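Worked Example 4.2. Consider the chain below.
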Amino acid sequence: MKIFIVIGATLAGLSVAFGAFGAHILERILEPKYLDIWGKGVTYQMLHAVGMILVGILLGKTPGNSLLTWSGWLMFIGVLLFSGSLYVLSVTKISMLGAITPLGGVSFIIAWILIIVAAVKFL
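Applying the procedure from the previous section yields the following structure tokens:
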């Protein structure tokens, strides 16, 4: 589905922007610990943006594959929960937000497992 390519490319572009924002603006404001947390959010967002683009390409080869469709949406949810919680944690220092981050991580893991299963079954 091209929606995953569009969302993935959008998230990738935003990842570059967030990385630049961290490197040029936040480095003057945040303690190194929180700047590192911001950077982890940027890294995982970019990795999973590329993953979503991959899902979109694979769906072009196996249209209607529900495993891949779920994988794409789980990567998107993972970016929102994982990277989003790290961004907010970095700038607010509200440590309770760290409890949301693992939910995004689990979404990422399940998404990659679904790609493996889809590849074994359909590719």
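The chain has a mean pLDDT of 97. The longest helix spans residues 32-61. Compare this with Example 4.1 before moving on.
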